[in-house]
Amino acid sequence: MSSPKILLTGATGYVGGTVLHRLLNSSAPSLQHLKVSVLVRGEDRADQLVRAYGAHRVSPILFRDYDETELIEKLASQHDIVINAGSGFHPASAEAMVQGLSQRATATTDANTRPWMLHTSGCSNVSDRPLTGQAFPDREMHDAEGTTVYDFEKSENEREWYPQRAAELAVLGHPASQSSEVGALSIQAPCIFGEGEGLFQRAGLMVPIMMRYVVEKGYGFQLGDGTGVIDYVHVADLADLYVLCVRDVVERAGANLPRGASGIVFPTSGRVYMKDIAQGCLDAAFAAGVLPRRGEADELTMAMTPARKFIREVDLHEAATTTAGNLVVAEVGWAGHRATRGTVARERLGWQPTRCAEAWARDFGDELRHVVAGKRVVTIDSCIAEKEVLPVPDGVVGAGSVRV
């Protein structure tokens, strides 16, 4: 495939902005003449993208939101590769993208130009529910057994519907994906850290959110028994994986990419207990002299803070103050066990993350400086599309109405 038509969502976000930057700055000969269509909210942002990358490299398309599924399906039908790096919590738009690519596949006469969907999801899809359900602290998922992971998610979603998991299943389980008419792969990210390279949102979520909590209150928080665990990956290493995937589609028609029911990839470079994220934030704040704060305590300034490093055990409702009030996301995010072992990207694509344990340790100091400077006013709302209540599909029990 030469000069594929690429549609990217999330270009103004953390992951999508970094992916766009890395794609357009890649030194790979096969990517030198890429022009990427980007879905954007707001003419001002569209103008900024064109000024930064040039009208010959980016083509902004204005849209209102992900509920415009007819528009999204139509746009997908006009492209060879769709990179969904926007919200992974919107099943309808994700399905519309695959449906549009299916139309693209029907219209092409070249069997070697199968359209591809690169979907962005998250490891909370495979998390347990240790507070309101069962805990599985020793469970580890392996992407070399992608079909097993897919079947597990399908079973879990039948038991309890979760929008991010539903979106991933809609992509990988779509008839066009199952029949290989469309190549569909989901990059199921763990905790993403580091400074983004896009023009707009350059902050991750978990470390900045915990760091702001620590700086404001003077202590960290722990949800559950402290065994909650997650893997991590630097945003630049993650973006490099997307570039490798696009290259494989362009250069080898996606021969090395898993797809459909086996198409779940875990991009991991390290693992951490959730309580250690709070500890890392405290260590950085105390080392820099930001904490403890002294002075007369008053409800307005909260001038006094604990004199020693302190991690407070909180309930689900307190943890949900950091997740736009979403109790499910709070539970899986701050207490869940979702250990994921990723070998597929390394073995099939030669992906080698270079920003690992040392970069992770440095990130706490970096995020502290950003928070103190007021540059990390970041919330999880946009990531989980926390805008309206979508009803759970008929026949699915246990979830109630889920805000997505």
From TrEMBL:
- Which InterPro entries does the entry link to? NAD(P)-bd_dom_sf (IPR036291), NAD(P)-dependent_oxidoreduct (IPR051783), Sacchrp_dh_NADP-bd (IPR005097)
Pfam families, sorted: Sacchrp_dh_NADP
The entry's protein name is: Saccharopine dehydrogenase NADP binding domain-containing protein
State the organism of origin: Apiospora kogelbergensis
In this chain the Saccharopine dehydrogenase NADP binding domain maps to 6-89
Of the GO CC terms on this record, one is:
cytoplasm
Give the matching PANTHER family: NAD(P)-BINDING DOMAIN-CONTAINING PROTEIN-RELATED (PTHR48079:SF6), PROTEIN YEEZ (PTHR48079)
GO MF, one term, reads: aldehyde dehydrogenase (NAD+) activity
